[in-house]
Design a protein that fits this description.
Blueprint: H1 14-31, E1 33-37, H2 38-57, H3 60-70, H4 72-85, E2 94-98, E3 109-114
Antiparallel strand pairs: 1-3, 2-3
């Protein structure tokens, strides 16, 4: 039974899922706004919010955790550009906007961006 297992699997193995979240978070950090499926956007939101909260402290340990989770380039952008903007905000850094379904397979699309 799947009681209390609310995470999505996306038909992938654990390492593939982690790599997917890492690449989505990397793209969102660098571009500020990405278009993806609704399920991936909903799964990315808490992942990214935790990274921004981690970047708000700016300590060496938090920088190293960020580098491990999204890569050096995105970690630097989170610590220097993104986190200072939300210094006084207690969460809710991202917004998900639903779009029309994808024509090819009918998958619900969404845009995830920083508020």
């Amino acid at each position: 039974m799947r009681h209390h297992n609310s995470n999505r699997k996306f038909g992938r193995e654990t390492n593939q899922r982690k790599a997917l979240m890492k690449s989505l978070a990397y793209s969102l950090a660098l571009k500020g706004k990405i278009k993806t499926t609704e399920a991936k956007a909903k799964e990315l939101r808490p992942y990214m919010e935790k990274l921004v909260t981690l970047g708000k402290s700016g300590t060496l340990a938090s920088r190293r955790l960020l580098v491990a989770r999204v890569g050096a380039e995105a970690a630097k952008k989170i610590v220097t550009d993104i986190s200072p903007v939300y210094k006084l905000r207690a969460g809710g850094y991202t917004r998900i906007t639903k779009m029309i379904r994808r024509k090819a397979d009918g998958a619900p699309q969404a845009v995830i961006e920083f508020v």
